Amino acid sequence: MNQPATETADVVLIGAGVMSATLAVLLKELDPEAKVEIVEQLDGAASESSFAWNNAGTGHAALCELNYTPRNKDGSISIEKAVRINTAFEESKQFWSYLIEQGAIESARRFLNPVPHMSFVRGAKDVEFLRKRFEAMSAHPCFADMRYSESPEQIAEWAPLLMRGRKGDDPIAATRVDQGTDVDFGALTRQLLRHLDSLGGARVSYKQRVASLEREANGDWLLELDVDHGKRSRQLRARFVFVGAGGGALPLLQKSGIPEAQGYAGFPVSGQWLRCDDPKLVAQHKAKVYSQASVGAPPMSVPHLDTRVVDGRSSLLFGPFAGFTTKFLKTGSPLDLPLSVRADNLRPMLSVARDNFSLVKYLVGQVLQTPKQRIEALREFFPEASEEDWRLEIAGQRVQIIKRDAKRGGKLEFGTELVTAADGSLAALLGASPGASTAVSTMLQLIERCFPERYQSEDWQSRLGAIFTARAGQLAQDGKRLAEVRERTHRVLELTPQPAQA
């Protein structure tokens, strides 16, 4: 049988999640003539990390996540990371607003809903931390609307379920920002891909698994694809490849053979949630409430009680409860982790295993948890929670980054990291939170790195200026400009603040 002819594209993106969808639409805005193709091994879009029930749907803007504001050695609170994440989310909101104004995607209500963000702590030490955090953050324009209270009556007004039935006299405190959001990243991804499909020179191909990824002598990339579970094969040549396959990105990055991939490994962490769909309970809690992580717990396991809005219906979500599996994807193989071990990443992996015993102990404890223990954890937030109102929901896989470290041999990272080839012909995104919330900002960084000359050109800068009236760096420094941008995006995105519950 003759080998089918090799097809060509300017850009190939692996994985039909929110990252690839965002980058593909951005690139088509900058270069409408570019030939772009997304390939996805599953039979639909946003089926892994971007799927609504595989993530918490928090529009991460550092309003409630305490791990984004670490305490310095002198006791002060560092807000640099929080400002960076907050302004990155502002870039996402500008991009979505632009697409809505252009008629490229539908009303924001299909994927974005206003849900207040809260932090809630107990005990004198954590109350002191939250008070200092509030003082540091509220002094910055990004967080000027944040409110703080140690009053049980005020906290009960903000989030009734937190206080109902709560006993004891331990100090408590909470912060609240009305301008928080809940995001259905699956719905957003599907809207972006529908828009992409309507453009000339762009398509999304499903049930196509990347079997090999090789660089040719001229610098192009040749992809061998298994189509429809091996029923046929396909060759695809591209000048630029983006690996946006979530937990599956590391094996594909390793297939590429680029030197920049050496030393990277992955540590998979699975998750579970408790979910409640009872309309009476759901109506009594309209907020995303984050607290402190347990000792030894990864930041992605920070406990939170959330309002979720999926397909127009509100639910409550509590968790996440972590677990361990050797799969890199929810639909992956138990061999994913062992097959990712290489000579160049073995030492970093062993070093991380040696230095993170508390994390291993935590994961073992999570795996062995009983349903009763999960409900007891929920009652730390919602004292009157009843087991019969909640059911277990399996969350998505997260593959945390392990990378080389000169001092320790290897270190475990809990953020996201962009890995790019020296010539800019390939890029891969590794890691987890804040992930999808900052997809636009991350993809802009990718474009600047991988297309430096075109990025600086008058044409691309003019096109970017039409989408982003102010970039993250300017918003972090200019409170007046920030207010102007928010006024526009909140109007377009219908993000009117939600009143506190009485």
Automatic annotation (TrEMBL):
Name of the top EC class for this enzyme: oxidoreductase
Cofactor annotation: FAD
UniProt record, GO biological process: tricarboxylic acid cycle
Pfam families in the cross-refs: Mqo (PF06039)
Pathway: Carbohydrate metabolism; tricarboxylic acid cycle; oxaloacetate from (S)-malate (quinone route): step 1/1
MF GO annotations: (S)-2-hydroxyglutarate dehydrogenase activity; L-malate dehydrogenase (quinone) activity
Keywords: FAD, Flavoprotein, Oxidoreductase, Tricarboxylic acid cycle
Listed EC numbers: 1.1.5.4
Gene3D superfamilies: D-Amino Acid Oxidase, subunit A, domain 2 (3.30.9.10), FAD/NAD(P)-binding domain (3.50.50.60)
InterPro entries in alphabetical order: FAD/NAD-bd_sf, MQO
Catalytic activity: (S)-malate + a quinone = a quinol + oxaloacetate
PANTHER family hit by this protein: L-2-HYDROXYGLUTARATE DEHYDROGENASE, MITOCHONDRIAL
HAMAP family: MQO
Family: Belongs to the MQO family.
Protein's name in the database: Probable malate:quinone oxidoreductase
